[in-house]
Design a protein that fits this description.
Elements (H helix, E strand, L loop, with lengths): L1 E2 L5 E2 L2 H16 L6 E2 H8 L13 H13 L3 E4 L8 E4 L1 H5 L3 H13 L2 E2 H7 L9 H13 L5 E3 L10 E4 L4 H14 L5 H33 L3
Antiparallel strand pairs: 1-2, 3-5, 4-5, 6-8, 7-8
Length: 225
């Protein structure tokens, strides 16, 4: 997990997916929440209601959870007599969010750039927005936070409604997503999403290799100090 010079966390695609799935499943499958690692992996790799579609291994999700717990985004819970640890998000506490704002942020994390109308249509089971205006009110709250969690994008050519995107991955990532969407429409077809997931997994593997080499070099250098 990277941070800006101001100390704001910048979440990578896997961290975003894990957090969003935890927030989604809390509302949709309350009886089975907190989630086991296996249930969380299944949610991350779900083919519906995801943009992009990803293919993330259990080992990668476990590593992501460790980073998120260290940064206080997730709690790991081991109940008495239970054989597995279960996980819950802390987004409400981390960002002081009520359920309507959390529902909007979760949809943007799961589905990418969207209009207020699209968010209302897709978030019905997370929060029952009575009107598009209610969604816009929640979006404005997220825009006005410091630091902001959401950005309102300029109208794209040929469109009548502005789209919104979250800022949890940083402004540069949002700009790339906006450019990709303007060039090719949705960035999340199933085939393309799978390719993106594979590339992201390769990045994770390279990060681990760099960390291992750094640790080996440090141990080697200590022999001569």
């Amino acid at each position: 997990m990277e941070t800006t010079p101001e100390g704001t966390d910048i979440l990578d695609p896997f961290e975003l997916r894990v957090l969003a799935v935890l927030a989604e499943k809390e509302a949709l499958t309350h009886d089975n929440y907190p989630l086991s690692l296996n249930a969380l992996v299944n949610g991350c790799n779900q083919l519906s209601s995801r943009d992009p579609v990803m293919s993330i291994s259990e080992d990668t999700v476990a590593e992501v959870l460790q980073r998120l717990m260290q940064a206080k985004y997730v709690n790991g819970i081991t109940q008495a007599g239970a054989r597995v640890t279960k996980y819950e998000h802390r987004l409400r506490i981390k960002f002081s969010l009520e359920q309507d704002k959390l529902a909007v942020l979760t949809m943007l994390m799961l589905r990418g750039l969207q209009t207020a109308g699209e968010i209302r249509t897709r978030s019905g089971r997370l929060h029952d927005f009575k009107s598009v205006a209610e969604v816009e009110h929640a979006l404005q709250f997220l825009i006005d936070k410091y630091p902001p969690l959401v950005s309102k994008l300029p109208l794209a050519p040929g469109t009548k409604e502005p789209r919104y995107g979250h800022l949890l991955a940083g402004e540069e990532a949002l700009a790339r997503e906006e450019t990709a969407a303007s060039l090719g429409g949705s960035v999340g077809g199933a085939g393309q999403g799978t390719k993106i997931g594979a590339l992201e997994q390769e990045v994770q593997q390279l990060r681990r290799q760099v960390d291992d080499l750094t640790a080996q070099f440090a141990a080697f250098r200590q022999q001569f100090e």
